[in-house]
Amino acid sequence: MNNNALQALTERIALEYFQRPFQHRAYFNSRLRTTGGRYLLGSHDIEVNPKQYVAFGEAALVDIIKHELCHYYLHLDGKGYQHRDKDFKCLSQQVGAPRFCTPIQSYESRANYVYQCQSCHARYMRIRKVNTLRMRCGKCGGKLVDITNKDK
Ligand SMILES: [Zn+2]
Ligand SMILES: [Zn+2]
């Protein structure tokens, strides 16, 4: 799934669920952390978190896009486009979109690296890469090994 495919998917969802064209841009932004997507008030573009796609597949993308399109059309129409607004609640219900931008992933599914202690075999999950020369096992002080790819 690349940006072109995401754009095409967004245009299709707009026509299918909102019966309106999507005339701005939709693209992946890997810097999004806790939200699945974001609607930009200034440019009217929609950003999508690629990790949601990797973790949960296309169904998650459809949910995110529907949700962001609710923000998009309500904002363009000058209606209540925020989560707490009545217009937003109505529209998101109509199109079957989740009420919030999230799902915020659990720590476990956000973890990109897995380390294991060579002595006691305790496992540690980390979002960022750690220096295994410096970080030691919290239980026994043993040496940690990166087992990220062996684990998947
Ligand atoms: Zn939202
Ligand atoms: Zn240990």
TrEMBL record:
A Pfam family recorded for this sequence: SprT-like
Keywords: Cytoplasm, Metal-binding, Zinc
Keyword match Metal-binding: yes
Catalytic residues (positions): E68
Main localization (coarse): cytoplasm
Protein name listed in UniProt: Protein SprT-like
BP GO terms, sorted: response to stress
Span of domain SprT-like: 4-147
Family annotation (NCBIfam families): PRK04351.1
Record note on cofactor: Binds 1 zinc ion.
UniProt binding sites for Zn(2+): H67, H71
Membrane-spanning segments: none
GO cellular component labels: cytoplasm
SMART domains: SprT (SM00731)
Listed GO MF terms: zinc ion binding
